[in-house]
Amino acid sequence: KDKKIPNPHILLLVVNDRRCVDRQLLPISDLMTYISFNHLGDNTVWATIVWHDEGLRKLREFYISKGKYGYNNGFYNRETDTLEDTDGYGLDSIVINISADFFAPEPAEWEKKWVNLLFETKPKDQCQFRKRRILAYTLQPILILFEIFIKISSRLLAALFFTVIRTRTKVNFVPIIHPFKNDTEDIYYESLRHGRNIYLRNKDNTEREDYAIAGVLFHPITVIVLSAILLMIDLAGTKIFLGWWSYLVGSLVVGVSIIVLVLIISVLGEVVKWLAGNIKSWRKKTSKDRRLEKARRQKAKYAQEAKAKKLAEEAKERAIQTNLDRLNKEFALISCDSGPLVPKLEALPKEKRTIHLRFLDLKARVCKPFAG
Are both 52 and 5 inside the same structural domain? Predict the structure, then answer.
C-alpha cells in the first residue's frame, strides 16, 4: 500500500534436489492456487511478492518467460539454496515431502511409446496423457502413415541422387526401409566420408587418368539431359519450323514498334524540359505557404498531445486509486487478520471462487501427476 503498487503478484518457485523444476506467477488478490509436484522427496516452495512499473506484460516477461533452454532469468542459486535478484518484497519458503503414493501409476510401456511418439517431452499428469491418447488412437495413425510416405520418398530420391547423379559408392539404402530407426543423413554420411565418385577416382581412391570425353558422354547427367532435349523435339514435331511469311510479318512488327518507341521518347523529352523550366517558379510560390501551414499543424499537434497526456495521467491515477481501494478491502484476508486461511476452495469468499480456481480444483481431483 505504501508503495502504491496497483497489481502485486506472488512469484512461486518449486525446488527439488537443488534444481528449480517449476515456476508460477499469480496475482496476490487470487488468495489461492494449486501447485503440481512431479518429483519425489523434499520439494521447497519459495515465494516472494513482485511487480513491474511497466505493467503485466513486462512482469511476465521478466519472471516467467522461457527460451530454448528454459527460463530466461534464473533466480534460484543452488550454491546458497535461496532466491537472488528477484527485486521482490519479502521472501519465505516451505518444505513439502512428496511420497510415491501421491503420483499416478505409470501406463504400460508399449502404450507410453505409442502415445508419446509425436511429443518430445513426457506428460506431466494424467490429463495431459489422456489428451495425447485421444490423438494417438484417432489422427496419429494417419499422420504416421503420411510421415512414413514422406520419409521413404525423400530418402529414395536422396539415395538415387547420390547413386545416379553423383555416382558415389557406399550409399546406404537401409534408412529407406527403416524410416524411424535411421536418420536421413545415414544415407549419404558414409558415402561422403569414405566413398568415391566412380567417374573421377579408381577403387584405390586415386584420380583416374582415363576420365576424358567418354566419361562425360556416358555420365548419367549427360544421358538424362540429352534424353530430355530429344523428348522435347519429338513432342514439338514440325511446329518448331516456321514459313518465310512469318519472318516478314515479324520484321514489320518489330520495325513499327521501334518507330513508335522513338516517338514516345522524343515527346517525353520535351515534356521533361518544360517541367524542369517551370518547377522552380512553382516551388517559390508554394514554399512559404507550406511553412506556415506546417507550423500551424505542429502547434495544434503539440497542444493535442499535451492534452491527451494530461488526460492519460489522470486516468492512470484514478485506475491506481481504484485498484488500491479494491486491495484494501482484501488485505484483511491476505494478511490473515481474521485468522489463518484454510487451503480449500470452499473457504474462500464467493467472489474469489473463480472459474479458473474451480477448474484447478477439479483437475487436482481427477488428474494425478506422473513422477519426474
Answer: yes
Characterise 4 by phi-psi region: left (phi > 0), alpha (psi -120 to 50), beta (else): left
- Asked whether residue 277 is domain-assigned, the answer is no
Note whether 20 and 85 are same-domain residues. Answer: yes
> Structurally, how many domains does the chain consist of?
2
0.90 cut: is pTM over it?
A: no
CA-wise closest residue to 177 among 206, 159, 152, 141 = 152
> Do the beta carbons of residue 367 and residue 131 sit within 8 Å?
no
120 is a domain residue: no
What CA–CA distance (Å, rounded) separates 4 from 323? 10
What is the distance in angstroms between the CA of the first residue and the CA of the last residue of the chain? 40
> Is 225 domain-assigned?
yes
Residue type present at position 59: L
76-77 vs 89-98, strand pairing mode: unpaired
Is 65 a domain residue?
yes
How far apart CA 265 and CA 271 sit, in angstroms, is 10
What is the C-alpha to C-alpha distance for residues 44 and 355, in angstroms, rounded to an integer?
Answer: 28
- Residues 63 and 25: beta-carbon distance below 8 Å: yes
Look-up: residue for cell 502547434? 299
What is the rounded CA–CA span in Å between residue 336 and residue 313?
34
Give the cell for residue 14: 518449486
Amino acid 281: pLDDT: 64
Rounded mean pLDDT for each run of 10 residues along the chain, 372 residues in total = 73 89 86 87 91 86 86 87 86 90 91 90 91 94 92 90 82 88 87 79 69 59 71 63 53 63 76 71 66 80 86 80 68 60 76 86 89 80
Domain end (from 194, 210, 238):
238
Residue 212 has a pLDDT of 53
Domain that holds residue 71: 1-103
In degrees rounded to 5, what are phi and psi of residue 48? -150, 155
Q: What span, in angstroms and rounded, lies between the C-alpha atoms of 95 and 149? A: 52
